[in-house]
Write a structure and sequence with these properties.
Blueprint (H helix, E strand, L loop, with lengths): L3 H17 L12 H8 L2 H11 L5 H12 L3 H9 L9 H25 L3 H10 L2 H11 L18 H5 L7 H33 L3
Amino acid sequence: MMTNTTIAALALLAFLSTTAGHAQDRSGPAANIADCVWDHVADSDKTMFLAHYTGRGGLRERMNRATAGLGPRDAALQAAYAECDATPGVPKPWRTALIGSRAIQYGAAHRLMETRRLSRDALDALWDDAPPATRECFMANAAKVFGPSPKSCSDPKASTWFADALSLSLQKAEDRDAIAELLIFMNAKAQEDWAVTLIGEYHRRNPA
């Protein structure tokens, strides 16, 4: 059983390796695990999540309702993960974060496609094109899901890059919902990157 100290040490190592380069190393056995797991999530669960995410209420209310809806489906979601990774002992919080972060991206991308005609591919490209300081800020914030973050955002203004790149402004009421969805998507993407990095580090330290 992994101790909190071990998990914290792994998190620190993963963070340092992530921010040292463009993004986390996706060359190991965990490289495509997020795509694989999401492909194995039942269509009915995806539909249920999307119905909650795009339903009534504000963004936070809808997102919280959608993620809460995943709770009763935990066994099925963990089974979807097991289809892609048979490595024993991968901490469940990492597995759950991987699935939850991909689900949130799914919901946010759907909304952005509906309202702004922004495809998932376009959003992924936007993340890849962002300056290192921008990704660093999102990675630092997303790290808090996994425990105390070993690094903070050095330039909070860097997080505005995504909205600026799409010519969106908080000064325009019609842009505010899109900016919120965009930031939610990018934060969830950073959380997924963390989960993939941590799982990859676990694989390297616990080879089959």
